[in-house]
Write a structure and sequence with these properties.
Elements: H1 9-26, E1 31-34, H2 41-52, E2 62-65, E3 67-69, H3 80-87, E4 99-100, H4 109-122, E5 128-131, E6 153-156, H5 159-165, E7 178-181, H6 184-188, E8 192-195, H7 203-211
Parallel strand pairs: 1-2, 1-5, 2-4, 5-8
Antiparallel strand pairs: 3-7, 6-7
Helix pairs in contact: 1-2
The structure holds 2-amino-2-deoxy-6-O-phosphono-alpha-D-glucopyranose.
């Protein structure tokens, strides 16, 4: 594990984008694991600039996203599908059919989890997985638990996560309470993982993740 310190959010975002750019340049048909949340927005902005400058080509890149809220249709402005289109995909030359995200409207939860795992397998795994971290140490939507999850699963979000997400929704009732997330095992099978953390509010959980025991109670500790 390498820890790369950055002087501020913009510096972190530029450094993260450079690492992803290196992956895209060295392996133009890479599978990128992508994340949502406020943390990667700056990274995506820098990637878009590199693309606009002519330095990156995403035409052969495939992406798999970590998670999606259950119950939000594609196109809903709070869905992660919408987030990815707005913050990255519509600004670069990625092919629509090459980016994947769990289907928040799937009728059969178990079947959707199986489908997503098979999809990741069919892509032969993730080359570089981008991650943020939740205030309670969650990665993707893998909340603190007694065991590390394996494949894609449907998660009941904790109150602290619902609270953290409330800033994006008009009322408590509108906030999804469940989400599909790639499992910890799938995340850990990525050939490289880039976890980006920024801001004072994350300092304590970052310290716990890096210096504390490896425990599913702090998913990022793994
Ligand atoms: C959500 C996402 C995570 C993200 C976390 C932190 O829970 N599912 O992937 O890491 O939010 O978000 P933020 O970067 O806004 O702090």
């Amino acid at each position: 594990m390498r820890i790369i310190k950055a002087k501020d959010y913009n510096d972190m975002s530029r450094k993260a984008a450079n690492i992803i750019a290196a992956q895209v340049i060295m392996k133009p048909d890479s599978v990128l694991g992508l994340a949502t949340g406020s943390t990667p927005i700056g990274t995506y902005k820098h990637l878009i600039s590199l693309y606009q400058a002519g330095d990156l080509d995403f035409s052969e890149i495939r992406t798999v996203n970590l998670d999606e809220y259950k119950g939000l249709p594609k196109g809903n402005d709070q869905s992660y599908d919408y987030f990815m289109k707005e913050n990255l995909f519509k600004h670069i030359n990625i092919k629509e059919e090459n980016s994947y995200i769990p289907d928040g409207m799937a009728e059969d939860d178990e079947e959707e989890c199986r489908r997503y795992d098979q999809l990741i397998d069919s892509l032969k795994g993730v080359d570089l997985q981008l991650l943020g971290i939740g205030l309670n140490g969650h990665i993707g939507f893998n909340e603190p638990n007694d065991v590390f999850s394996k494949g894609t699963n449907l998660i009941k979000l904790t109150e602290s996560t619902i609270e953290a997400n409330s800033r994006f929704f008009e009322s408590y009732d509108d906030i999804p309470k469940y989400a599909f997330t790639m499992g910890i095992k799938s995340i850990m099978q990525a050939r490289k993982i880039l976890l980006c953390v920024s801001g004072k509010s994350k300092a304590e959980i970052l310290k716990e993740s890096i210096e504390g025991p490896i425990t599913p109670q702090v998913p990022a500790s793994i």
